[in-house]
Amino acid sequence: MAIVNSIDPQSAEINLTAWLAAKLPRATDVRVSNVTIPSGSGGSNETVLLDAAWTEDGQQHTQRMVARVLPADGAGVFPDYDLQVEFDLIAAVGEHSSVPVPTVRWLELDPSVLGSGFILMDFVAGRTLGDDPPFTAAGWFLELTTEQQYELHDGALKALVDFHAVSWNEQTLARVTRRSGTAPGIAQLVKYYEDYFTWASEGTPNPTVEAGLAWAHENQPADSDRHVLCHGDARVGNMIFDDENRVTAVLDWEAAAVAAPEYDLGWWILLNRHHTEGIGVPRPQGLPSTEDVAKRYEELSGRTVENLHYYEVFAALRLSLLMVRTARLMKDAGYLPQESEMAIDNPASQILAELLGLPAPSSAGTTSFFGALS
Questions:
Q1: One domain, residues 216 and 308
Q2: What phi and psi values does residue 104 have, to the nearest 5 degrees?
Q3: Is the pLDDT of residue 364 over 50?
Q4: Which of 62, 149, 335, 374 is the most exposed place for a label (fewest CB within 10 A)?
Q5: What whole-number distance in Å separates Cα of residue 270 and Cα of residue 182?
Q6: Peptide linkage before 133 cis (omega within 30 of 0)
Q7: Distance between CA 366 and CA 350 in Å, rounded?
Q8: Whole-number mean pLDDT of the chain?
Q9: Domain-embedded: residue 4
Q10: 132 is a domain residue
């Protein structure tokens, strides 16, 4: 979900009905109904669920759909978004790989329909693992047996491996890099997040993050020959599962990048850590340890995991940086007092400090990135 929901369901229903009718010029009786904006995890795009119905060539059609809507200007977690790239990426993954993704229907960049541009895609039935409360603390994951938990995680990790195996030409790879005109890989990503901190912090010091950025810059691994297309937000919380705990869709592609596979793997491991020791809950017995995740990734992919410590640190740094921006958005929305130090002291920054042997950041209290978004 977005930090601040701004879409009115009734207005969206009217606008989407007219918009869909224009997209289906041969159809009659076009109607959009049951527009809802669910609560959930995430911190950027708004999600709009809807039912679409129309008649075409004498056939009646009904389809549950999802609109993924850009945040309003100035209200996003990231400084810029490229819906065209995201749309093309999802479509290409669906066409050229075994990775399950939603079927994308249309891309709309005109903000007059829903207030911002959006992607309309087919709804994928299933269940997701929550971030607030995290699936490690409450919810259906904890109702599974240890073996079922492990099998679910293993299937999700296999989906990540399959994604990293997708073959992409150089032009397509270049389109998902965070900075145009530079080579893909970790150097470009470090530069992106250095610039991100300048933008998100608005000049406010953050000793742990600044130390993390310096470390990330000075310790960049030489892995330019190992680039794959990375999801950027690879975690079990960005997947849909069926009743047999199999992955039916991989979601949320806005942070895709080109880098070593450990860029995703480090984030995956960091999020598992954040959702357990980071927030003070025990690791479910069926959720593998860092060592076991790395070993299993090697078994599934046939790759040797390299520089994992660097990429886990970089993941903690990235999440700490997202907290800086999230804290500002929540203060602006009135969800946090202006004196809150959430941007400095949170589970991500605590983990980052621990990984680098730095003094623990301290303030009046800690708030999780995901818990902050409710």
A1: yes
A2: -90, 135
A3: no
A4: 62
A5: 27
A6: yes
A7: 9
A8: 90
A9: no
A10: no
pTM of the entire predicted model: 0.91
For the segment 54-89, what is each residue's pLDDT rounded down to a tens digit?
999 999 999 999 999 998 776 789 998 889 888 988
Domain check: are 114 and 166 in the same one?
no
Domain of residue 350, residue span: 140-373
- DSSP secondary structure string for all residues of 270-302: HHHHHTTGGGT-PPPTTS--HHHHHHHHHHHH-
Between the alpha carbon of residue 127 and those of residues 24, 103, 144, the distances in Å are: 30, 17, 14
* Residue 46: strand pairing partners: 69
**Continuous H helices in 128-274:** 146-164, 170-175, 186-201, 207-218, 262-274
Q: Do 52 and 103 belong to one domain?
A: yes
pLDDT in tens, 220-263: 998 878 888 899 999 999 999 999 999 999 999 888 888 999 99
* Nearest by Cα to 268 from 319, 304, 229, 222: 319
Q: Mind listing the pLDDT tens digit for each residue in 89-141?
A: 898 888 888 899 999 999 999 999 999 999 999 999 999 998 888 999 999 99
CATH code of the domain containing 242: 3.90.1200.10
What are 275's two structure tokens? Answer: 């959702």
Report if residue 2 sits inside a domain.
no
Question: Based on the domain organization, do 97 and 239 belong to the same domain?
Answer: no
Beta carbons within 8 Å of 3's beta carbon, 6+ residues apart: 43, 71, 75, 77, 326, 329, 330, 333, 335, 373
Tokens 């047996």 correspond to 145
pLDDT tens, 152-179? 999 999 999 999 998 766 556 556 655 4
List the beta bridge partners of residue 52.
32, 63
Q: Is 31 helix (H, G, I), strand (E, B) or coil?
A: strand
CATH number at residue 105: 3.30.200.20
At which of 94, 122, 150 does a domain end? 122
Distance CA(225)–CA(219), nearest Å, equals 17
Residue the block writes with tokens 């880098």: 259
Note whether 46 and 78 are same-domain residues: yes
* DSSP one-letter code for 359: P
